[in-house]
Amino acid sequence: MKRRxxxxxxALLGSLSLAPKGLAQGAPQNAPALGRxxxxxxxxxxxxxxxxxxxxxxxxxxxxxxxxxxxERLLARYPSGLINTYSxxxxxxxxxxxxxxxxxxxxxxxxxxxxxxxxxxxxxFFAAAKEAGKAxxxxxxxxxxxxxxxxxxxxxKDRNAENEIAEQYLAFGAEVYLGGGDRFFNPERRPDKKxxxxxxxKAGYGVARTLEELRASNASRLLGVFSxxxxxxxxxxxxxxxxxxxxxxxxxxxxxxxxxxxxxxVLQVEAGRIDHxxxxxxxxxxxxxxxxxxxxxELLTAFVDQHPDTLLILVSDHATGVGxxxxxxxxxxxSSAGIDLLEGQKASFEHMQRVLGNNPDAAQVKxxxxxxxxxxxxxxxxxxVVEALTKKVYRPDGVRYGIQPANTMSWAMVxxxxxxxxxxxxxxxxxxxxxxxxIALLYGQGLRFLxxxxxxxxxxxxxxGEALGIRYQNPVMSEEEALEILxxxxxxxxxxxxxxx
Length: 501
Ligand SMILES: [Zn+2]
Prior knowledge:
Elements: H1 3-16, E1 40-46, H2 51-64, H3 70-77, E2 80-84, H4 95-104, H5 125-131, E3 135-143, H6 147-150, H7 162-172, E4 176-180, H8 196-202, E5 206-208, H9 211-216, E6 222-225, H10 234-239, H11 247-259, E7 265-271, H12 273-279, H13 283-306, E8 310-316, E9 319-320, E10 324-325, H14 337-341, H15 349-356, H16 362-373, H17 379-391, H18 406-412, E11 426-427, E12 433-434, E13 438-443, E14 453-456, H19 459-468, H20 479-488, H21 496-500
Parallel strand pairs: 1-7, 1-8, 2-14, 3-4, 3-7, 4-6, 5-6
Antiparallel strand pairs: 2-13, 8-13, 9-12, 10-11
The protein binds zinc ion.
């Protein structure tokens, strides 16, 4: 073994010791190097995206749209691998600890942004890139102040402190912020009545709050906030006439602005609501947000083709819910029917809840499922949904389904007849995040023969650093230290339902 490899192995074993108990001797992982530099960096995070989501979207694209996913074509030709996702103190991570691993290169506890459990701030990668003269952009379908984008630019011990994070964004001064979260910027909605829109304008930003304003803006620095909370699901934008920009349209607005900066840029794009749809166990919302991400991905790779000094890193931060298409019928011959039945699903549970309100009757529920999910509920199933919406009686029983009433709405339309499927044969493990390894993929010049293999999620930080020639080390905390701190000061996750809401 070469000396360089020995050192690499030593570093790798060091990072493995940070794994939650019982994994210290874990599987060997790769620490691949790019072997070259880039001027621009794009990190595309598919939040809560599992291989089961990939499989369903891939099959839907082939069977119903008559094409392959752009992601499928990239997987076939470019370096891809897996990342382990566990946080410092849990095999099941959430988005801020996963975001910290990417942006800070160290494991943290769940719940804080670029910060250790004792409050020690970490330097997020985009902050270092900004110091090195790079323009910075954040584009997401969640609130723009949400965990995954925020963990790349600022530190905060509470990922849910989004009012404060909006102010931290103003101080940070990225060139482009696009996403949802009006209530964190609007003086009429903020508890402290501060006018963040006005403050951003004063600081030289153009502010866009609709698709039209986004298209019309010629501001070089841009804040775009397109919804009260998260940007509505793609399935509702596409089929229910909800008027917001698509992820692709937001990326389209971000790229030329960032590309106009002389020293290059860093951009995080997040398909943030794949995670939410999976929490809700909503097959159509998941599918269409994956397809929307795929359209944005195609645009991003076209940009890389025209700007070969750009590296694109695509990662998921963890899997969520894991709605899997399962085998149905004799010799599994009925399995693919589930894909075709998804075509009749034209709205998210989120949208259906808005339409149904808090006090629907069984007939209204039946009509909503027929029109928007293509499913004929039985009287009993419709009553299950009525009770969930009106009396907060939820199904199925058990702690793993915590995102209500949506998990009950999903449960009401599960497949009942395996031999003659009239509903999608998609089964969910839970309404929560899960522990499985997830996708990592690189796209850029000079990478075709790179092997990624199985990496730790913290290695994304090292790849970004190598790409831009920005190297530093954040302080490391051990699991024992973190657990000791958490005993006396329980920071971190709230109720699972609050994690994404
Ligand atoms: Zn996440």
